[in-house]
Write a structure and sequence with these properties.
The chain has 410 residues and is mainly alpha-helical. It has 16 helices and two strands.
């Protein structure tokens, strides 16, 4: 791969995830500022975050049955980002949570396919994807981190300008996409049936009890993951204020660091121990959040930094395990099925459930002096929910998952 091509692809990945990092983390605090605190907004936040899960379920059909067959990947990506820029600005004009939800849903339906399309553009230009892709993809993590740091520095965590910043980056990437290396459509000869898009060829993996247990554990562990994505920002803002996005970007920093250890540990300690470490980190993270306080802020920082272990040791390891278990012939179908189940089905369940749990522990009072309504949350009880779910999944996994250290293809 030429140096110029590598620079173009790195810039593409940086902007791709900068956009997401600019509005996704701050959406919870923004909704509280725009629509008020309380149980209704808590449920609405869960619904808004579920939009990404719905889009993840639908986007493979768009990419597999339309984009891949009829359009050059970089061009359709450019159009989607340009349209998305307008919707991000429009979202800030909404005065009701219902209208905001529908705008975010439509935007997510435009954005989520661009993740697969950006990967397609990158892979098409690489001579050795196994070695080259991680170095390109890491710029996406850097984009997310930079977005959080800029928002913290500008002190605009709950302001509509976070969406407008994301919109500017989206418009920029939309235009930039048209100068990316050409990635022509695959054509109608490719197998783009409904079954192939759903990954039905990968169903053979369920003949393995070990993979079946892992698969359902992955769906369930997305419920605790949803609590973090949907409500950690609002919770941590009570302690860190406008510096919250910058503090939360420490999670992406740890993600970039821990991912370097995965290839070594995967072969050294085995997939079961890797996954156990990942799920154990989820339990520990939420215990830290449940008992963190102004006098014990180290627990809050620990919960953030554990993101690297939580995400890398479970999801990145899970992708590696899925690829090894599937083998060369069905690996693409297997990865598609795993993504559909986790970031689609699992996150959809988790985002809605987390919204109702947070709303359950919201209480209101009236300030005696100003007569203003004050909304507070019992965060200790809230965070114990995902801790308990992750703990239950962990215990069940320890006693039921049995995979050989040398993984046998299904």
């Amino acid at each position: 791969m030429k140096l110029k091509t590598g620079i173009l692809l790195s810039a593409m990945m940086f902007l791709q995830y900068y956009i997401w990092g600019a509005w996704y983390v701050t959406m919870g605090p923004y909704m509280e500022q725009a629509f008020g605190k309380g149980p209704i907004t808590d449920v609405a936040k869960g619904a808004a975050y579920s939009a990404g899960a719905i889009a993840t379920i639908i986007s493979p059909f768009f990419v597999g049955m339309i984009a891949d067959r009829y359009f050059a990947a970089q061009r359709i990506m450019g159009v989607l980002h340009l349209l998305g820029a307008g919707l991000l600005v429009y979202a800030t004009q909404m005065t009701q949570t219902s209208g905001f939800y529908w705008v975010i849903l439509v935007y997510s339906l435009l954005y989520m396919p661009t993740i697969a399309l950006s990967n397609s553009v990158a892979f098409a230009q690489m001579t050795d994807p196994g070695k080259q892709f991680p170095w390109i993809r890491v710029f996406g993590t850097l984009g997310w981190i930079v977005a959080g740091l800029i928002i913290s520095q500008l002190e605009i965590t709950d302001k509509p300008i976070t969406f407008q910043i994301a919109a500017v980056a989206s418009a920029l990437l939309g235009l930039f996409s048209f100068i990316l290396p050409n990635t022509p459509p695959k054509g109608s000869s490719e197998n783009s049936s409904l079954g192939s898009i759903l990954g039905k060829d990968a169903f053979v993996l369920f003949k393995s009890n070990a993979y079946k247990i892992f698969f359902f554990a992955a769906i369930l562990i997305c419920i605790p993951l949803s609590f973090y994505y949907g409500f950690a920002g609002s919770y941590l803002q009570e302690f860190f204020g406008e510096g919250t996005p910058g503090k939360m970007s420490m999670g992406q920093m740890s993600e970039a660091l821990f991912i370097l250890a995965i290839p070594f540990l995967f072969n050294k300690i085995g997939v079961k121990n890797m996954l156990i470490l990942g799920m154990g980190a989820w339990v520990l993270r939420y215990i830290c959040f449940a008992y963190g306080s102004d006098s014990a802020q180290w627990m809050l920082y620990a919960g953030i930094i554990l993101h690297g272990v939580c995400y890398d040791f479970f999801f990145v390891t899970g992708y590696m395990y899925t690829e090894k278990k599937a083998g060369e012939s069905i690996k693409n179908a297997a990865q598609g099925l795993f993504t559909f189940a986790t970031y689609g089905v699992g996150m959809f369940i988790g985002t809605w459930y987390s919204g109702f749990v947070v709303a359950k522990y919201a209480t209101s009072s009236v300030d005696a002096a100003t007569k203003a309504e004050i909304i507070a949350h019992n965060w200790n009880n809230i965070w114990l929910y995902p801790a308990a779910i992750a703990g239950a999944v962990l215990i069940a996994f320890i006693f039921t998952f049995n995979e050989k250290k040398e993984i046998v293809t299904a």
